[in-house]
Amino acid sequence: MGLGSLRGVSDPSEHAARRRTFAIISHPDAGKTTLTEKFLLYAGALNDAGAVKAREGRRGATSDWMEMERKRGISISSTALSFEYRGLQFNLLDTPGHRDFSEDTYRVLAAVDSVVMVLDTAKGIEPQTLKLFEVCRQRSLPVITFLNKYDRPGREPLELLDEIESLIGLRPTPATWPVGRSGEFKGVIDRVGGDFTRFTRTVRGAQIAPEEIVPADRAAQEEGADWERSMDECGLLDAVGAEVDSESFLAGESTPVFVGSALTNFGVRHVLDALADLAPPALARPDAAGVPRPLDAGCSAFVFKVQANMDRAHRDRIAFVRVCSGEFERGMVLTNSRTGKPFATKYASQVFGAERSTVDSAHPGDVVGLVNATDLQIGDTLYVGDAVEFPPIPRFAPEVFATARPLDTGKYKQFRRGLDQLDTEGVVQVLRDPLAGDANPVLAAVGQLQFDVFADRLDIEFNAPSEVLPAPYEAIRYTDDASAARLREVGGIRILRRGDGRLVALFESRYRLQRLENDEPDLMLETIAVD
Ligand code: G4P
């Protein structure tokens, strides 16, 4: 099958213009899965909502990864879902949603052109998820906001707008506004056209919610006090100039806000339409030097995620690439810009959970899973024609730390091999003591989940069952050789080297770090931001 066999389209720019490549980000339970499912329902890709969950239920025992997913009730495998809507191709990339965010979640953001941020109206922005939203802001990704679960009693939407502005620094610009207090949600006012869309619930929200477009004067008569209240609030929004503004949205500064309920399908179509009308298509991607690679140049793509052992029987390794220019054709031989070596793309697939289908062609904005990708690493650029190298995928400051050792000392060789491999793949960051080599490494990650995956893979793939225990570090900083000598004299600090050669200091106490920063300002202690 071809990704994007859109009728009558031939050149890469035209394909790119019809792509919407995005992710849905939310706090767990805010409704990401439900919204995904409803997108498919509205796009005509599902007849009956409920199938996505059923699919999840069906995977199961096909591999240990799947087993882990099942146990934890989360999706670890990256899901790249493609569907057509209004003649456009939507590519929805899944960001693993769980309290334990992993670096994979952030890496997906490097491969999308926009995001839909889903908030539970009753809860607003929850602390654990704030960082994810901040990363979007830092990367200037265009964000569309969906205030979900408005069918239930919740907080005032005006209050939520304030929260978005003050916590994330994104200026909210409501595109629709609700009629009927939360809990008695009737429909939305389109702030641009002024019409009222009245929704009707369907049983379990399994079918598209019938919509009636009601002109303002009739809506005023029929909805009475609810309408008046909404009009008052819209008046307030007009007064502060909160109009949807394409330019600042595309610059990642303002966010169009939609109110709705994924469960009952209210407002789902409006979000899809916003993705079609407002969200950016696939654009020429700047290379490492900042020069955009023309869309009609030779095929180019970069690896944003590597996943191994999805299927134990095959022991394979899939590299997920995002196509940036040209046309990808299965079987073509691409060059890896890091190694200069050729990579044959004989096995290319689209992956949905545990299910795969072969992809024969793909276009800018599309995601392809390359199977047997032993030589590919996160951040690698693949190309044909003029050489290109895209910027590296950002790394994020680790927040959790652990130590690891093989349970069977006879398996030390296997353990070391696994350590190297999983470090290169970016499963965890391995920090080694420059004075002690591979003994006593410290693992660093953004979330605990990464350690679980690490331990699982050491056991299954490298036959080195290991003990991974939490390590009591509270902070990490870059440092240099000169400062390291001094830091080694202080207790509760370890000096280690990251896989890319950078020296870091790990602190058992955040307080000690602060004191050192105050008392010895000459020490090189640099925060690891997104780099
Ligand atoms: P997630 O992927 O972000 O973790 O959230 P998910 O869609 O799984 O939704 C979490 C829960 O919230 C589910 O209920 C879901 O039905 C419910 N939900 C999602 N959207 C809405 C909405 O617009 N209104 C209301 N009232 N509820 C919503 P659950 O009981 O955990 O699961 P289920 O048994 O309903 O599947």
Query: Treating each run of at least 4 consecutive H or I residues as one helix, how many helices?
Result: 14
| Low-pLDDT sequence parts | 51-78
Q: State the CATH class of the largest domain.
A: Alpha Beta
Shape designation: globular
Main sheet properties: 8 strands, antiparallel
Looking at CATH, which topology of the largest domain would you report? Rossmann fold
The percent range for strand residues is 25-35%
Number of domains: 3
Backbone CA Rg? 25 Å
Bound molecules: guanosine-5',3'-tetraphosphate
Number of E-state strands: 31
CATH architectural label of the largest domain: 3-Layer(aba) Sandwich
Q: What is the rounded distance between the termini? A: 37 Å
Output mean pLDDT. Answer: 85
CATH-level-4 superfamily name of the largest domain: P-loop containing nucleotide triphosphate hydrolases
Helix share, percent: 25-40%
Name the structural class.
alpha+beta
Strand order in the largest sheet? 18-17-23-14-15-22-19-20
Describe the structure.
The protein is α+β, with helices and mostly antiparallel strands and 531 residues long. The protein folds into 3 domains: 22-277, 3-Layer(aba) Sandwich (Rossmann fold); 285-383, P-loop containing nucleotide triphosphate hydrolases (Rossmann fold), CATH 3.40.50.300; 400-527, Peptide chain release factor 3, domain III (Alpha-Beta Plaits), CATH 3.30.70. The strands form 7 sheets. Strands 18-17-23-14-15-22-19-20 form an 8-stranded antiparallel beta sheet. Strand 12 (285-286) and strand 13 form a beta hairpin. The longest helix has 24 residues, at 216-239. Bound molecules: guanosine-5',3'-tetraphosphate.
